[in-house]
Amino acid sequence: MWVVLTANLAVVALFVSSWNHARRWMEGRSERLRSIAFSSLLGVGTVASMLLSLPLHPGIFLDLRSSLIATAGYFAGPWGALITGGIAAAFRASMGGSGAYAGIIAIGVAAVIGLVGHWSRRGSEPTIRHLFWFSLGLAVMSGLGLFGLPIALTTELLARLGAPIVSLNFVATFIAGFVIIQGRQWARERALLRAAFVQAPDFQYIKDTSCRFVAVNETVARHNGFAQPEAMRGMTDFDIAPPQRAEMLRAIELRMLANGDSIENFEEEVEDPERGLRWFATSKSPIRDANGAIIGLAGVTRDITAYKRLETELSAKSDQFRYALQEMSDGLAMFDQDSRLVLCNEQYRSLFPLTAGARQIGAHIKAILAAVVETGEQVDLPADRQGWIETIAASQKEGGEQEIHLCDGRWMRIRTRPTSEGMSMVVVSDITRIKEAEVVALHLSDQLRVLAGTDGLTELRNRRSFDQALDRELARAARSGSPVSLLMIDVDHFKAYNDTYGHQAGDECLRAIGRCLSNSTRNGGDTVARYGGEEFAVILADTDEQSAAVAAEKLRLAVRKLARGHKGSGKGIVTISIGVAAVTPVGGESDASELVRRADEALYQAKAAGRDMVMCWGGPPARKTSSRARRA
User: Fold this and answer.
1) How far is residue 525 from each of residues 457, 469, 539, 541, 586, measured CA to CA in Å?
2) I need a labelling partner for 416 at 20 to 30 A (CA). Which of 189, 229, 275, 310 fits?
3) In what side-by-side order are the strands of the sheet with 341-344?
4) Is the pLDDT of residue 87 over 60?
5) For 524-560, how does the pLDDT look when each residue is reduced to its tens digit (9 = 90+)?
6) In what helix (H) or strand (E) does residue 265 lie, and over which residues does it extend?
7) d(Cα 151, Cα 153) in Å, to the nearest integer?
């Protein structure tokens, strides 16, 4: 007996499972056609159940046909009850026997129970709870059906088979309903996933290990001129893209299939014959089977042309447009009236990797700041950390802007804006590149400033830098009451040197004299400059006229020691003449032009006296053994 009843239960499970497999072939068909197919399959199942029935008495059979009939009515409604019940009734009538009439009535009762269960749901999807009570009701009714048999037989069957009949009908109905419910859920999920794949606005596709398309969505098909996605099955990129691009894509995919690597947001420019230059961002990942072997790859490509064009346009505009561009990738957070985080995007957390875990919905701003202190994420925090936390937390209600330096070297700009409802919005921007650009700009500015004040030939200060240095030194001397001396230097007979040796040699001569003067000054506080042409100037800080004359004589001798030949000079070598002037400003700044005039007059006197000598303004030469005396 139990073997026969177990076989009946297997028949129920087999036909219900078969429907779940057949459902895929019915996708896209009308609801009525699916109901007819479902009811017909379960009707065949009732026939199979009756073929394996347990004969209780001549013409009386025990099987699980009722569970399939009720299940058909429960899920397919009137069509299910009519078709499944009709097939079962027709076959039972063909079997004949004394219990044929009672068997047909039992089939009708099972169909009615299925319809009652169907209508009781009022069009909603069946639940496990509802299925339980439905199965229990059918099982009870199947037990009560025994009372339709002769009284003597009913008593015998109730005692011997009442419990098994009720139990097996309950189990069979519940299992059948449960499998169908799960199948429907899986079918809906498959339909949803399929719709998401096929109808997604992005380009989605799956390829095999030979880089051939296995499946594409409608966006890919339309973009490549195909009416249906199935038309691209088996194609490769060589069928839809220029050879050079197709070869590049194939090389990337073969490398992914070989190494198991993924690519994310790989950007490329593609020339569209109709729409011009387009930008695409692609992410691809290998697909693995249950054993971990790579069996293909899945890819998603997004058209980011609009974004790239906007980015290009905004980069050429003012700070307002640059700000708008930065906002597209900034971190955003909203805090409620109690300073608790109620909303934030992923950028907000990713900008602070060390405290991302603390930046969760519901976290208080003080807890977030405490995590910053604990992890050391922000540098240059004040010694009073608790006071800093209280101050920053209070500023949430006031708004403002600050720049912070993180421990990984990045810079963030944090802008806080309170709302009229008492909340506050925080926008965080990564300004590391801007900060780096500022450093570079400052460095370039310093370099330009140096270049602007440097003579290109001698690499000494130029006339402009000399004038600025002299003004500064005179102003400083006026405040301190210390003397300032100025040496005006001229290379003797330099025109004759150029005429004799050429301008290139003349330039080298000036460079050599410039190096000699720079190396022979007393300390780094002295300023050596090329005043113009073959003239040089030296500013001596905190130096009176007597000391300046000694320093000038040292420079004159240093140039003579160069022993640079000069046929156009009576000395036979290159020499210099130096004019010395000194001033001690008292009660205010001294006139730089006056000091220059005095030193220039002294230089003129030195040149007039025979050159190769030092002459102080308004006084005799610094050395009595001047060049004139030596010539005598």
Assistant:
1) 22, 11, 9, 7, 21
2) 310
3) 341-344, 331-335, 424-430, 411-418, 400-405
4) yes
5) 678 899 998 999 999 999 899 999 999 999 999 999 9
6) strand 263-272
7) 5
